[in-house]
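All the exercises in this workshop are built on plain-text protein records. Sequence and backbone structure share a record, each on its own labelled line. The question running through the whole workshop is how a given chain folds. The record below serves as our worked example for the rest of this section.
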Amino acid sequence: MTKTLRLSVAVLALTAGAAFAQQTTITIGMQLEPPMLDPTGGAAAAIDEIVYSNVFEGLTRFTADGSVIPGLASSWDISEDGTQYTFTLREGVSFHDGEAMTADDVVFSLDRARADESTNAQGALFANIVSAEAVDDTTVLVTLDGPDGAFLFDMAWGDAVIVDPASAEGNATNPIGAGPFQFENWAQGDSVTLIRNDAYWGEAPALTEATFRFISDPTAAFAAMMAGDVDAFPVFPAPENLAQFEADPRFNVIVGSTEGETILAMNNGAEPLSNPLVREAISHAINRQDIIDGAMFGYGTPIGTHFAPHNPDYLDLTGNSDFDPERARELLAEAGVENLTLRLMLPPPSYARRGGEIIASQLRDVGIETEITNLEWAQWLEQVFRGYDFDLTIVSHTEPADINIYARPEYYFQYDSAAFQGLMDELSVASDPAERTRINQAAQQMISDEYVNAYLFQLAKTGVANANIEGLWANSPTQATDLTGVRWTE
């Protein structure tokens, strides 16, 4: 090889290496398109999967292991009686529209979330706030109606992010936060694109651009990953294909846990499901493992109550509603119910659509017929979540530590128990870890014993990514695709 040729090859190699090292864009696959992009105005998990910690930030935030760390608040002091939180805000923070973030914006955001006319899906997070006051530009005093051991945890939810008053009403389609990425474009039906916020107050992310592509069909998702059209699919919709990815060195398969309690929710406010004997019969008619194997290809952990198995306070109550079709038939006879047909409303995720067919077959075996209706998310939110117009539905509740939803009589499954509400009142003021464990376990036992819903499995997080990508969360302590630590390694 001549000296000139050797030099040309060396230059070419360096140039190619530098070009590859400079890759700072990523395409993320998602099965569901969000109905809006404002996490304070909608309940869909797909909203936070795009914007949480990317576009919007709160006073606190969740990390990959589920712990709570400072967010837009750099620190806080708690009064001796536990009712006042004094937050010190970070300096030099601005929203993507250039407006400086101050204590007034925090007050506005908290007051907006707890207002009577608020559309926030998690209004209970703010119910104990008596007042929020701006002491000065970087100090906020929040007063509660009593001590609350979960307040900092609650402020880390996507529903509690801080918004700019000037742009808050437009966040559904043009989200403006203070995070490391800013909104660039929403091609509805196809994708959302974010670009790096070069004015970000914290450490700049390695990525300069991220596109979230919506691919609802599992077969198309597989094809997009194999073709390299998508770089990562953090929640891959076709677990049956994971073995193929595992055998291919181009990919990493990332399996972790989620906060997603997957349940067969029952309308406790309507007959015949207002009868606990009928609910118990349905619970005993279901074989959880068949659903995990048939709908999730073995990925998932059986649960017997609304609590994550990885939580230290978890009680294994699966035996309380074990698969016992003969017992189910006896309970239906005891309830005086025969020739029962129930409406089963299924949202888009494959765990719901596939699981629904299996559950329909299992219920048929004990004498319950089902009428299945497949709904898109917007329909599900309107008809089931807001309208209570359903008998049964399958959904994974991915919000963290959310057993308190059973203390809301107006929640979509309409469980109304003064005793349970009392437990949640106790929990809200308990700070001793042992006492919180006792209350959490009593709450789990109560909803299991009353068969409020049929508890199926804890949703596993099954993701696929290009092998040269690092920093994606393995677990989902909240519904998020946090890109702040994601980078290409080559």
Notes: Confidence is low (pLDDT under 50) at residues 1-20. The longest strand covers residues 251-266.
